Amino acid sequence: MSLTILPAEPRVDALLSDVIGWEPTRGEWPRGMSIDPSGKYLYAANQNTDTIAVLRIQHSNGKFKFSTLVHTRRRWLSSSAR
Known about the structure:
Structural class: mainly beta
Distance between the termini: 35 Å
Shape: globular
Radius of gyration: 16 Å
Strand order of the largest sheet: 3-4-5-6
Number of strands: 6
Number of domains: 1
Low-confidence stretches: none
Helix content: under 10%
Strand content: over 45%
Number of helices: 0
Largest sheet: 4 strands, antiparallel
């Protein structure tokens, strides 16, 4: 899945042609998003894969650059792997 990137101040009659780009979240079903207090990163939570994509905000062009993917569920080892 991906995020659609629009201008910070879109026109009232904004069209698909106003889209700056798309950025994959490297997960399924992005739901919640938040920008960190410094304004440098956007966090996108992927509901179906229990991950959070960390994207650096490129203020020069309005796009994102992938930084890392955080797994929020603990992965348990099977008894045979111990």
